[in-house]
Design brief:
The structure holds two protein chains of two kinds. Chain A is of the alpha/beta class. Chain A has seven helices and five strands; from the N terminus they run βαβαβαβαβααα. A five-stranded mixed β-sheet of chain A has the order 2-1-3-5-4, sandwiched between helices. Classes of the chains: A alpha/beta, B alpha/beta.
């Protein structure tokens, strides 16, 4: 890869931006600047004068970048979106991963392809991490709900802990529901009877 | 009839009404369509996801349908627009300070007249220049946007060059109001509900609903890829029907309350039902003191033939692209732009809906300045203006 590029990352998610920056630095890119705050975005970008701009697709300021194609007088160098009609697969992969790349100054696209590929893989890795975190969180929430429901049943029905759990499990099987769902219903009912 | 699954992207704005109601009130399901709505944050995303096939259809800002089809500023992907999601609906809002300056520069004339306000703006701009003050900054939503063209058309008619005398900057609609409040911009042109939000917060005055500048302006279109339209003619026909019925339903005053409650949902437009209602009713609060301007042309969703695409609108938008240096002038490009609008598909899906309306402008546009627009003669339209690129 060519270490002489100056790359700007526009991403409001600091964790994802850091992951991407690390990846770019590992690949030998030393000139990486992160922008989180998007007010006066164009002025910031002109001041940095990058060769490549990477922006996440959840960012409404993407439309602001599109203006740079138009304002040739205000920009020192031409800018284009990374589009290559012959390589629609990598565009689709980028949009799917949630990132878009803009090239400043007529840099040859093949020289930027590696940056885009790295970007796609880091964005995908980030969303896998996010999914895993969400799953862990919801598993934890389910555990908490089951514990609370057990406590309610033990108190109200005067059951032992194993019996309370067995009752939840049996009800779940009869109702064809998850134990956590039955636990939620128990909690809700208890709230109503308070 | 098997349910057909479609993914459709939209931006949370009042002119997505026909699409949102088609889904939420069951008009799409009645046509055998199972629509997954995807709320988006930028027109660039909508354009790209439609272009590469992540969306089957999209709520498209009208000029983007033409720009994509002609390959302006981006990849060339032919789009067809068989249904008009909204006619009009934009407004120009300015800060209290700029409003006062324009009013003072109008020499007692009524600034509700857009020619008066545009000429007054020219005097404000000239005075700032002579004092060495920075140029005024106006926000709009996208380079290929009606907002860009509406602002330019208005100010240029009064003698303000939109590229030389002021700064026009792209701002995402949700950031418009904040930018006005923090003086990053002096005014903006955006769709509903954002103008009303600024007025309600007491930080903006609506100078003109755009319907005072152009009596009839195509704002958003239902857009699909031309290739998709060819491969799925029956699905498209059903999609147009669902939109036609939903638009008619939303326009019936008896359904307004229910419709506005549906649109207000956080995963739809996510604004207050009251603000949406004022927009659809055409009761526009133009000043923080509560002054109302009532216009039955503010945003037209289904009435007065708003749903039926009129190729004259495509020609007018293409003419603005030429006027401001975004596209070259050629008869081929003009013809290609007009072909994006597909009244034939609309008529085939909703037979008997085509009609003429006495209330509508004879040239289809009804601009407040310049000669009548001839959709076959863009050169004459351009010749009428001194300020152009």
């Amino acid at each position: 890869m060519d270490p002489s590029f100056k790359i700007v990352i526009v991403d409001k998610n600091p964790v994802r931006a850091a992951i991407l920056e690390d990846g770019l630095r590992e690949a030998g890119h030393v000139q990486v600047v992160r922008i989180e705050e998007t007010s006066h975005l164009l002025a910031r970008i002109y001041a940095i004068d990058p060769d490549v701009i990477l922006i996440d697709l959840e960012n409404p300021s993407r439309d602001v970048l599109e203006q740079m194609f138009q304002m040739s007088r205000a920009v020192k160098r031409p800018i284009a979106m990374f589009v290559d009609q012959s390589d629609s697969a990598s565009i689709e992969a980028a949009v799917d991963a949630g990132v878009s790349a803009y090239i400043v100054g007529g840099l040859r696209k093949e020289r930027v392809k590696n940056v885009l590929d790295l970007c796609i893989s880091r964005f995908n890795a980030f969303s896998r991490l996010q999914d895993e975190l969400d799953r862990t969180r919801s598993a934890l929430d389910e555990r908490k709900a089951i514990d609370r429901a057990k406590g309610i049943l033990m108190k109200v029905k005067n059951l032992s802990e194993p019996d309370a759990y067995a009752l939840l499990r049996k009800t779940a099987m009869n109702e064809n529901k998850k134990i956590a769902e039955v636990a939620q219903s128990v909690i809700m009912a208890a709230e109503l009877f308070k | 009839m098997s349910e057909q699954h479609l993914r459709i992207g939209f931006i949370p704005l009042c002119d997505a009404t026909a699409l949102l109601i088609a889904v939420d009130k069951g008009f799409a399901a009645a046509e055998g369509l199972d629509i997954e709505l995807v709320r988006e944050v930028s027109w660039s995303n909508i354009r790209d996801k439609l272009n590469i096939g992540l969306f089957d259809a999209a709520h498209l800002i009208a000029p983007v349908a033409i720009a994509s089809s002609l390959g302006l500023g981006h990849v060339k992907v032919p789009i067809v627009a068989p249904f008009g999601l909204g006619v009009n609906g934009n407004a120009i809002t300015v800060s209290p300070a700029l409003y006062a300056s324009i009013a003072a520069a109008a020499d007692g004339e009524n600034i509700a007249d857009p020619m008066v306000s545009a000429r007054a703006l020219a005097r404000v701009v000239a005075r700032r220049k002579s004092r060495g003050e920075p140029p005024l900054t106006f926000g709009m939503t996208f380079p290929f946007s009606t907002h860009n063209y509406h602002l330019r058309f208005w100010m240029a008619a009064g003698g303000v060059d939109p590229d030389e005398d002021v700064r026009l900057v792209v701002l995402p609609p949700p950031y418009m109001v904040d930018s006005l409040a923090s003086n990053h911009v002096d005014g903006f042109c955006v769709g509903a509900p954002w103008n009303s939000v600024a007025v309600d917060l007491g930080i903006g005055f609506i100078l003109h609903p755009v319907s005072e500048i152009l009596s009839r302006a195509a704002e958003k279109m239902l857009g699909v890829r031309a290739s998709w339209a060819q491969e799925h003619p029956d699905t498209l026909r059903r999609l147009i029907r669902a939109h036609g019925f939903a638009a008619a339903y939303a326009e019936d005053p008896a359904n307004r309350e229910e419709v506005c409650a549906m649109l207000a949902a956080p995963n739809r437009i996510g604004a207050s039902a009251e603000v949406i209602r004022r927009t659809l009713d055409g009761r526009i609060k133009v000043a923080p003191d509560g002054t109302l301007r009532v216009s039955d042309r503010y945003l037209m969703v289904g009435r007065n033939g708003a749903g039926r695409p009129d190729p004259a609108q495509a020609a007018w938008l293409y003419a603005q692209m030429v006027r401001w240096g975004q596209a070259p002038l050629s008869n081929d490009l003009l013809a290609a732009a007009k072909r994006v609008w597909r009244p034939d598909l609309y008529d085939a899906a909703l037979p008997g809906e085509a009609a003429t309306y006495d209330s509508e402008p004879r040239d289809g546009i009804g601009a407040f300045a310049g000669p009548a627009f001839d959709p076959n003669d863009v050169a004459t339209h351009l010749a009428a203006w001194d300020i152009k690129r």
